[in-house]
């Protein structure tokens, strides 16, 4: 299946991730997709629609949860076989026979299985974080940061209007992270008390590595911004002007829509190029080659990484700690 087989309506109020999930589900129900069929990658969706990887990842998480898709690490996402339970039993029988042949007793096998089941239960007792942001580059930064917290799973929501037009439910998440500047978008929206208690406004700052790169720019040198969205360019220009007005670049190019010739022309006059830290996951192969040649010819790529500030990180840690503490006491 190709990403172009999935019709996406960007003008619809329905979130794009839900459109992807619905289209694939319908294709399975109608027999257009069969067990074992490989689904498009997040890069495929970006190349054809400019859709961020976090959006595709969330769609596939929904499909996996609904038993429609299975994700194989390093290989991709595939339509799940309805008879997988029968195949699983056959596989278990085969492995049991092999263990018995190797000299393991039934007691040994039972002990090993019990240990493994306990480990799997601990793995499944993860803290589920929903992160909501309308800027895909900033969302990628938040995903990277949040995935560093132990025993957590991050569910990204790329949304343009966080005022309640979306159909996803927030009850299933243990924490809902949203940028503090986006909180006004919730005003006037009816939100259940249970969900309100899970919403955590956070702030971000430029990472120390990014600040070190910016410090190397000599005032007067030509600087440009290459990014996926105008929103990220606006955030970055404001950030730079507050640090040093001399750093604020005026020229911006969107790699989500530019041609190879436009990119080459843009780079000719730039000594430094500010670009989102996740650009390698979203740029086309042709754009990557052009950027590589740009560096080889003396140009400097400056990947911009935003990170969650220390205060927000401490609040997230507290939420996670309280969650595990309450679950520990409940299970005793």
UniProtKB/TrEMBL annotation:
InterPro entries: Tscrpt_reg_HTH_GntR (IPR000524), WH-like_DNA-bd_sf (IPR036388), WH_DNA-bd_sf (IPR036390). The keyword Transcription regulation applies. CDD domains: WHTH_GntR. Residues 14-82 form the HTH gntR-type domain. Coiled coil: none annotated. Keywords: DNA-binding, Transcription, Transcription regulation. PROSITE patterns: HTH_GNTR (PS50949). The keyword Cell division does not apply. Gene3D superfamilies: Winged helix-like DNA-binding domain superfamily/Winged helix DNA-binding domain. This is HTH gntR-type domain-containing protein. Pfam families: GntR (PF00392).
